[in-house]
Amino acid sequence: MKKIIILLGFVFFMFQAQGQQKTTNSVRAALKFDQTAHNFNKIYYSSEGTHNFKFVNTGNEPLLLSRPRSSCGCTVPTWPKAPILPGDSGVISVTYNTHIIGRFNKTVTVYSNADKPVVLHIQGEVVPRPKPMLPVKQANDAGTPIRK
To answer: What is the band of 18 on the pLDDT scale with cuts at 50, 70, 90?
Structure first.
């Protein structure tokens, strides 16, 4: 009976030690963004439609980003190709094509060697540029301009 208790205690200890080893190794690379959504509100047609999403590798292994996937061809992400070391930061730039008038709500999914993919959101509305207004001259009742 004593041998069985010792054997069970040894087996329990081995499973517990193996479980602790898995949890310490599972930290790997970790991707933490300052923000994952940006609202452009109203932006003018043919203007700059880029936002930079800043992130940090909070894990204990180098972070490798694979090609981020955008929800459509009107949204183009750029990302660092080199590994991001633990504690280092980087930027993923997301550019929306502002040659399309109207509301938009787009996503970019970032894949990496971290545990889960991260989804970045951009939204806003592209509006036409206002037409330039010419200065209006004031006139008196006779139709001649008033000089100041």
So the answer is: low
pLDDT grade for 11, boundaries at 50, 70 and 90: low
Q: Tell me the average pLDDT of the chain.
A: 84
The one-letter amino acid at 137: K
pLDDT of residue 55: 96
Left, alpha or beta for 75 (phi > 0: left; psi -120 to 50: alpha)? beta
The span from the CA of 39 to the CA of 91, in Å, is 17
pLDDT at 19: 52
Rg (CA), the chain: 29
CA trace torsion 34, 39, 44, 45 (10° rounding) = 90
Q: Which of 64, 123, 113 is nearest to 90 (CA)?
A: 64
Task: Give 30's Cβ-side CA count (13 Å radius).
Answer: 9
Which has the closest alpha carbon to 47: 110, 124, 112?
124
CATH tag, 29-127: 2.60.40.10
